[in-house]
Amino acid sequence: MNEGTDTPASSWRVAVWLHSSVSAFALTAAQAERLRRALPGTTVTVYDDEAAFARGLAEVEMGIGWCFRQEWIDAAPALRWISTPAAGRDYFQITPRPGMRVTYGAFQGALMAETVAGMVLGESRGLLEGARRQATGDIWPRATLAARLRCVRGTHAVIVGFGRVGEWVGRLLKPFGVRVTGIQRQTPAESALSSRPSWMDAADCLLPVSQLDAALTQADHVILVLPRTTETDHLMDARRLALLPPGAVLYNVGRGNAIDEDAVVRALCEGRLRGACLDVFAREPLPADSPLLHAPNLFLMPHVSAAAPEYLDLYIDEVAGLWRDSQKD
Fold it and tell me: What CATH number matches the domain at 9-107+308-327, 3.30.1330.90, 3.30.530.20, 3.40.50.720, 3.40.50.920?
């Protein structure tokens, strides 16, 4: 791991800047000490602001942060490893030097899956609609709410983007009796049995994205767990929304570019879609004039599907594992 520098990995200097208005994403003093213990032999310095972090980055071998800028990288000749808790590759755009390691968080699946499971249960069993009505003063909508309730057991979830997070989503939904179809870029080779999770049964399947349209026609839950790429732009457009049965619900915890928001609003207003639960949007924060805010049966979260007090602890555990593995090289 110390390729290109004479500094032994065991004596690396580490600059850290993990600040956020969301408490779950901001490093606490206790977590800073935990990080120091996780990287034995290193000198870990935690910075309070961007300018100080940029200056500190110029003198270290490893940087940990939510954001990196190209000019910081270019001014840091000793820097060998950039690490971020973020899973998305769209949080920052840099061109690393040859040999420079860039790692992203891969631990969020279990947290995000709990959010999706909560959305599926809350929408199907009326908790979300009940809370919405209570907030508007309708505290006893018994007949109206009961008419919307449905069993989760026996429904079909199509998970579009069946990677680490998507697999976790399916794993948590399966005990509720949900049939799972995972959509991947390519169909796993039949001989690659390890590609099929052990929790899947005979009713579940993995399909390539070329078969997405057919899967949508039989979906009760369409769950998007996709990165932001040109290939995922408006993947769920008006045409694909029209393929869904009227009882389908759309969920998005990946990136907001994956859906045509105007088309979703129309489908909800016309009753062609039972509901939608969205955590991510084309523009964030969601603009005050967004039509989404007035669409019926639409439930919103402000891009926090992975938030939990343990978030950065899980990240530290992951970094510690990567660090230990690097010491074996």
Answer: 3.40.50.720
Residues contacting 273, CB < 8 A, separation 6+: 241, 244, 246, 248, 249, 250, 264, 267, 297
Length of the chain: 329
Assign 9 a pLDDT band (cuts: 50, 70, 90): low
Q: Which residues are catalytic?
A: 255, 284, 303
DSSP class of 175: G
- For residue range 53-110, list pLDDT tens digits in order: 999 999 999 999 999 999 999 999 999 999 999 999 888 999 999 999 999 999 999 9
Token pair recorded at residue 245: 């049965």
CA distances from 71 to 60, 90, 264, 293 (A): 15, 17, 40, 39
CA distance 41 to 211: 51
- CATH homologous superfamily of 109-300 equals NAD(P)-binding Rossmann-like Domain (3.40.50.720)
Q: Which structure tokens are listed for 158?
A: 């199509």
* Residue that the structure tokens 């500094």 belong to: 7
The CATH 3.40.50.720 portion of the chain extends over 9-107+308-327, 109-300
Question: Which tokens go with 43?
Answer: 């000198």
